[in-house]
Write a structure and sequence with these properties.
Trna Endonuclease, Chain: A, domain 1; six-stranded mixed β-sheet; 11 helices; 15 strands; 21% strand; McrC_bac; McrC; 5-methylcytosine-specific restriction endonuclease system specificity protein McrC
Amino acid sequence: MVPIQNLYYLLCYAWNRLPEPGEWQHVAEQEFHRPLELLTQLLLTGTRRLLQKGLPLGYAEREEELAELRGRVLLTPTIRRDLLRRGRAVCAYDELGPNTPLNRLLAGTLDALGRTRRLPAALRQQVRQVRSRFPEDVQPAPLTRAELRAVRRLRLPGPESFLLNVCTLIYRTALPDTDTEGRTRFHDFRRDEALMAGIFERFVRNFYRLEQRRYRVLSETISWQAEADRTEDLALLPSMITDTSLESAERKIILDTKYYNVAFKPHHDRQRLISPHLYQLFAYLQNQAAQTAVPLEGILLYPAATHEADLRYVLGGFPVRVVTLDLNQPWPAISAALLALVQ
């Protein structure tokens, strides 16, 4: 399981946001016992910075009974209340203020964290202190899938997008607590293999985007080198989308990440590589070869598993490596190992 301190690095790279100067050290000096404590600290740090600069403002629709017309007149409630005879009307108008979807989501998430017993008392107190700094007209929104989707549609800039990602991960770790009204339980998302696979994939891709300049880094769709009796049948072929492609003028690497507990599986009392992983990478290489003029090679990258591995093959004329990355070692060693992998 990934140590919580290293989980911080994985999340920062996965969400494409390197910390502010000194933030690495600040987090490294703290001791976290659960991933929720780390996520809460990230949320507090980012929210404090947002409050220092001033919460972002936005236009929100407001309904109010007024003596002067403003915005749109809402006829149904106006007539129902018989306001016209009194020279009044219910109006809906846009008002600029801090009651934005993101600010409401942050307030709601802080409210949920302030109630959970999964956090130490001192950290819950920090949560409540930060929450108390929000203006009274920010109405907290519940931490739900619908609210998260609504905020994500706004395409927020970097720091605000990072906070949205933190809230999303907190939501994905939340479980309803039927025993305690108003509180939420949280599970250790490091045990969620599908969730961690997505984090690991984005971490590796963004690490190479940010930490080296030799290669252009992308995730790309590879076209099948295929023919069919009917053209429309080609659309039924599955998509081939690489996790990470690294391309320079002299070399191209297709790097596929696999977040599995083991890189091998037993077969007749012997350990074997996981065949579908090799087949997938080999299919990528075969179909990509006709579309690139530079030497092509492949890498299967696993987090450190039961067996450490650094295996080298030539499959169908393509160099292929199967490598494990130890995520339990200090971060500088992880960084050095990733850079050495593509040198």
